[in-house]
């Protein structure tokens, strides 16, 4: 199975493609809407080919899938199920780094019947977080213990020296994906009680987390943590939480951004005639003469608040023109953020992953286990985000191509035959979580 098809050429593709092209006998095709991006990623490697494709062109997608042995979809998640169905038709394995949606899970039986592996959530979060968690959990079980609580945190941020904007954030993956994630509901278990967080209140519910070797961050809930209790085999745990890490002041600011309506995708404005200031004035019901006072009054915060200063820094309180045509406030916000929150040449990012477990053992012994990764991007090279997302998927794809993964159906990387070899190879690349253990009284 030497023919690999990579769909997409976004932020995280280069380490994955470089890894696979350096494997013997691998031939790789990158298919993307902007072929120049793929050509840059392939970097003239003789075993790499770039083709232009619109993923909504069913016939073109069909031909590409048919000619491959393994398909890696790095497209936005909304396309994965359609790609998976094409893989079923042509009997091709599939690898993605995205969450398993119900529509993907529903293909498990068909994939098994066809002898296919659809491996999902094989990036960093989800991905390395699952694999590192299972390594600890299986170790605790092997010692006769069980997991009492598990708190998992992950964040992609600018490195300390490159944290050069008031947002404390720069894009290392899809801007639209970041904004959409800010609208998710959340759910977790704390001391035996289920906590439900509606999307509109996502950023109201956060706490501070100290991460050794990295600093203090805000943590807010990442989707629904409860299904992972069964996935991880820790159904008896009394606490289970998955959270996103961001720099201080992020949550309060984004709560206000959402309240203003900057993530609204329904209301439409003509940006040929309307400026960002006028759009925001319309959203908050102001007259636009003093937009700062309009915002302060609408949000019931002082006019010197940091959230308002962040909007001013973006230029959203000015009469500028954006090349959006007819679009929603969501599109306006994404456009401006993508322009301003960017990594300059040579700047580096920071990937922080932190796990906290409480384990109990026979004889009433209790233990706190932490596992922490603080990975910095390579100056002038690959980002930490692209390495930690792309390399796990690349390693798993190589194992699949070599016939070392025999499972079929829709899976996450929680089985030892996946997480053992992948974590071992990542460790040789310097990507690893460092564990500490402390006896609890």
- The CATH superfamily title of the largest domain: Dihydrodipicolinate Reductase, domain 2
Query: Over all CA atoms, what is the radius of gyration?
Result: 23 Å
General form: globular
- Write out the strand line-up for the largest beta sheet, numbering strands in chain order: 3-2-1-4-5-6-17
CATH C-level class of the largest domain: Alpha Beta
CATH topology assignment of the largest domain: Dihydrodipicolinate Reductase, domain 2
Helix content: 25-40%
Please report the total strand number as a whole number.
Answer: 18
What number is the mean pLDDT?
96
Description:
The protein is an alpha/beta fold and 441 residues long. It folds into two domains: 3-119, NAD(P)-binding Rossmann-like Domain (Rossmann fold, 3-Layer(aba) Sandwich), CATH 3.40.50.720; 128-252 and 345-440, 2-Layer Sandwich (Dihydrodipicolinate Reductase, domain 2). It is built from 16 helices and 18 strands. It has helices at residues 13-21, 35-42, 58-66, 80-90, 102-105, 108-113, 128-142, 175-181, 227-231, 250-260, 276-284, 291-299, 306-314, 329-340, 384-401, 416-428, and strands spanning 3-7, 27-32, 48-52, 70-73, 93-96, 117-119, 146-158, 186-190, 193-197, 206-211, 215-221, 239-246, 269-270, 326-327, 349-361, 365-376, 409-411, 434-440. Helix 7 packs across helix 16 (416-428). The longest helix is centred in the last third of the chain and has 18 residues, at 384-401. The protein starts with a strand and ends with a strand.
């Amino acid at each position: 199975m030497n023919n690999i098809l990579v769909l997409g050429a976004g932020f995280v593709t280069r380490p994955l493609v470089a890894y696979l092209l350096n494997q013997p006998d691998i031939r790789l095709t990158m298919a993307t809407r902007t072929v120049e991006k793929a050509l840059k990623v392939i970097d003239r490697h003789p075993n790499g080919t770039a083709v232009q494709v619109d993923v909504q062109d069913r016939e073109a997608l069909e031909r590409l899938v048919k000619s491959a042995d393994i398909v890696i979809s790095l497209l936005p998640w909304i396309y994965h199920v359609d790609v998976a169905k094409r893989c079923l038709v042509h009997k091709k394995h599939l690898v993605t780094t995205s969450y398993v949606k119900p529509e993907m899970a529903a293909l498990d039986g068909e994939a098994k019947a066809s002898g296919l592996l659809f491996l999902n959530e094989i990036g960093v979060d989800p991905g390395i977080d699952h694999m590192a968690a299972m390594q600890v959990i299986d170790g605790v079980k092997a010692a006769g213990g069980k997991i009492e609580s598990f708190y998992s945190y992950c964040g992609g941020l600018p490195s300390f020296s490159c944290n050069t904007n008031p947002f404390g954030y720069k894009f290392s993956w899809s801007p639209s994906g970041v904004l959409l994630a800010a609208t998710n509901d959340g759910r977790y278990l704390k001391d035996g009680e289920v906590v439900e967080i509606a999307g509109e209140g996502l950023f109201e519910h956060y706490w501070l987390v100290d991460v050794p070797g990295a600093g203090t961050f805000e943590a807010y809930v990442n989707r629904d943590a409860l299904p992972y209790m069964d996935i991880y085999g820790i159904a008896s745990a009394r606490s289970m939480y998955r959270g996103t890490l961001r720099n201080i002041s992020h949550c309060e600011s984004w709560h206000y951004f959402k309240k203003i309506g900057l993530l609204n995708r329904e209301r439409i404005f003509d940006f040929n005639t309307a400026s960002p200031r006028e759009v925001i004035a319309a959203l908050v019901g102001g007259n636009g003469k003093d937009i700062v006072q309009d915002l302060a009054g609408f949000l019931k915060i002082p006019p010197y608040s940091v959230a308002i200063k962040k909007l001013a820094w973006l230029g959203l309180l000015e009469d500028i023109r954006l090349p959006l045509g007819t679009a929603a406030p969501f599109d306006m916000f994404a456009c401006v953020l993508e322009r301003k929150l960017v990594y300059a040449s040579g700047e580096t990012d920071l990937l922080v992953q932190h796990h906290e477990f409480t384990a109990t053992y026979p004889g009433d012994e209790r233990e706190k286990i932490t596992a922490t990764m603080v990975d910095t991007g390579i100056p002038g090279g690959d980002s930490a985000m692209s390495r930690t997302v792309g390399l796990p998927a690349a390693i798993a794809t190589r194992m699949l191509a070599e016939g070392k993964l025999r499972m079929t159906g829709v899976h996450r990387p929680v089985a030892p035959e996946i997480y053992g070899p992948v974590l071992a190879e990542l460790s040789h690349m310097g990507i690893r979580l460092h564990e500490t253990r402390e006896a609890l009284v």
